[in-house]
């Protein structure tokens, strides 16, 4: 029997019934069906603080805390959308709900409120209360984020999105409140201090989270499977080519909830160690396909500037805590946020199958609407970004809301400018064709030419003609085309302002 990297031995398939540790108590998964969401699993067991608001991961009323491998400590408390994650995906893992945050009272007395709950109460952060437990869980994840208070103490002045206590309001970008108003909620977030030394959830961070377990959970004619290694998973997919592969389930969860999709077999890949590596070297940055966007963001810490621009605009923190690059590319959506950025970075995908691996440039990966060169039984193991990186980059996402929205059009630009001349240009586009595309004609209009207003205007005209944008409820085709050209002109204005200042 193999062991994960943290040394926790795995449980073999079928040896013990699937179970989740909820608020410190092991809870059997049965009789839940394999497609049952964590939200429904909890509510059926009386933990009704977890609410369903949208069933799409957009409102945060369902958020809970999951113990995950930490970036700066052995364990991070991570907030996720319980409405999207299948309960079976949390087999062997440890979660805390809003009910589990309070400290039990002595001898059955009244529980003592958690500091986050206390601040929400005294600062008027709740009216009807429907969204409050979700806000509390998202706020608690930020409360326990390692280094939060250290960032507040380093002399950096707080801004509109960071409190004097280091609290990052992006932690709440996936939570909606329809009646309280956000000011008192923000006040509560900016009032919490550092966790006390005796805080059990703070102490819990010093121990490793539960290791991944092999899962074989079958009920009602459906099966949820997790294998302990990539090789075993690829063999399984060769045997079950009909299986639905899930990582963070931020896309599949919506299909289950909104479209009532059901799968006879679901295979989880989110804890595979071979898909969770991140390597940086002089020639390339290789990112494991099952690392969450939050993990990538915090581990890279700005090392790839264009990715650093992408992350705050990719849905919400709750979604980024589950979403993966492998999942975003695997769905093949033409409006995914990461493909334009990865195209501009000239990334490639490493595809793994039972017979070996192959590397495919991302520009050659997409073949049609939600179609790709990925063969049945293959997985995206990693995304590889070559070095050196372009020094002038930008990611412009045009959407109706600033955060947590689907883009009308997305533009990623990466330019090498030397001695005032554009030596190389790479432009990735989303939302203007059946697949994410490179703006090849606009790139050619830039390369070898001086970086001037005339060059930018000429390339912007070519960029407006890129793709085949359509009219829909998000934007008209004409608007999308105009935004493409405007994006390049915006980059030109920003670079010349930087030079003149």
Give me a quick take on this structure.
The protein is α+β, with helices and mostly antiparallel strands and 501 residues long.
Descriptive overview:
The protein is of the alpha+beta class and 501 residues long. The protein is built from 16 helices and 20 strands. Strand 8, helix 8 (252-258) and strand 9 (265-268) form a beta-alpha-beta unit. Helix 2 packs across helix 5 (182-191), helix 14 (440-446) packs antiparallel against helix 15 and helix 15 (453-464) runs antiparallel to helix 16. It starts with 18 loop residues before the first strand and ends with a helix.
Topology:
Layout: E1 19-22, E2 25-28, H1 38-43, E3 63-69, E4 75-81, E5 94-96, H2 115-122, H3 132-143, H4 148-152, H5 182-191, H6 200-204, E6 215-219, E7 222-226, H7 230-239, E8 244-246, H8 252-258, E9 265-268, E10 278-280, E11 284-288, H9 293-300, H10 305-310, H11 317-320, H12 325-330, H13 338-344, E12 348-353, E13 356-361, E14 366-368, E15 371-372, E16 379-386, E17 392-398, E18 409-418, E19 421-430, E20 437-438, H14 440-446, H15 453-464, H16 477-500
Parallel strand pairs: 1-5, 7-9, 8-9
Antiparallel strand pairs: 1-2, 3-4, 3-5, 6-7, 10-11, 11-16, 12-13, 12-16, 14-15, 17-18, 18-19, 19-20
Helix pairs in contact: 2-5, 14-15, 15-16
User: Roughly how much helix do the residues carry, as a percent range?
Assistant: 25-40%
Spatial order of the strands forming the largest sheet: 2-1-5-3-4
* Major sheet description: 5 strands, mixed
Q: Radius of gyration, Cα only, in angstroms?
A: 23 Å
Fraction in beta strands:
15-25%
The strand count comes to: 20
What is the number of helical segments per DSSP (H or I, 4+ residues)? 16
Question: How many angstroms does the end-to-end distance come to?
Answer: 61 Å
Q: What best-fitting shape do the alpha-carbon axes yield?
A: globular
Uncertain residue segments: 1-16
Backbone structural class: alpha+beta
Mean pLDDT: 93
């Amino acid at each position: 029997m193999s062991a994960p990297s943290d040394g926790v031995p795995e449980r073999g398939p079928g040896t013990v019934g699937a179970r989740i540790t909820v608020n410190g108590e092991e809870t059997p998964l049965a009789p839940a069906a394999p497609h049952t969401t964590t939200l429904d699993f909890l509510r059926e067991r009386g933990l009704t603080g977890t609410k369903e608001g949208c069933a799409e991961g957009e409102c945060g009323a369902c958020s809970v805390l999951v113990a995950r491998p930490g970036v700066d400590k052995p364990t991070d408390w991570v907030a996720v959308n319980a409405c999207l994650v299948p309960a079976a995906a949390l087999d062997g893992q440890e979660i805390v709900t809003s009910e589990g945050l309070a400290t039990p009272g002595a001898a059955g007395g009244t529980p003592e409120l958690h500091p986050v709950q206390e601040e929400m109460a005294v600062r008027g952060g709740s009216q009807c209360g429907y969204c409050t437990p979700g806000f509390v869980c998202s706020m608690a994840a930020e409360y326990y984020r390692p280094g939060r208070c250290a960032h507040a103490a380093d002399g950096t002045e707080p801004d509109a999105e960071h409190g004097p206590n280091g609290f990052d309001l992006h932690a709440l970008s996936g939570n909606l409140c329809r009646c309280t108003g956000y000011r008192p909620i923000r006040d509560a977030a900016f009032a919490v201090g550092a966790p006390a030394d005796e805080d059990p959830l703070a102490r819990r961070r010093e121990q490793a989270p539960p290791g991944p377990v092999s899962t074989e959970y079958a009920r009602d004619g459906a099966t949820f499977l997790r294998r302990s290694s990539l090789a075993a998973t690829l063999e399984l997919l060769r045997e079950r080519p009909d299986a639905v592969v899930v990582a963070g389930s931020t896309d599949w969860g919506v299909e289950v909830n909104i479209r009532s999709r059901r799968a006879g077999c679901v295979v989880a890949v989110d804890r595979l160690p071979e898909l969770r590596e991140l390597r940086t070297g002089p020639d390339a940055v290789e990112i494991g396909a099952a690392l969450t966007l939050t993990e990538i963001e915090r581990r890279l810490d700005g090392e790839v500037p264009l990715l650093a621009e992408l992350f705050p605009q990719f849905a919400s923190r709750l979604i980024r805590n589950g979403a993966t690059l492998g999942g975003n590319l695997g769905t093949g959506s033409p409006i995914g946020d990461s493909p334009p950025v990865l195209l501009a970075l000239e990334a490639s995908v490493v595809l793994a199958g039972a017979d070996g691996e192959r590397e495919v440039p991302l520009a050659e990966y997409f073949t049609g609407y939600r179609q790709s060169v990925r063969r049945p039984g293959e997985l995206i193991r990693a995304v590889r970004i070559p070095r050196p990186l372009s020094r002038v980059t930008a990611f412009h996402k045009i959407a109706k809301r600033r955060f947590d929205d689907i883009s009308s059009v997305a533009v990623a630009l990466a330019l090498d400018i030397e001695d005032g001349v554009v030596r190389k240009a790479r432009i990735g586009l989303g939302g203007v064709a059946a697949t994410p595309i490179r703006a090849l004609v606009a790139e050619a209009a830039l390369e070898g030419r001086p970086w001037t207003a005339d060059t930018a205007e000429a390339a912007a005209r070519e960029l407006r003609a890129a793709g085949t944008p359509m009219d829909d409820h998000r934007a008209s085709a004409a608007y999308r085309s105009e935004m493409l050209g405007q994006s390049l002109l915006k980059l030109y204005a920003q670079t010349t302002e930087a030079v003149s200042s």
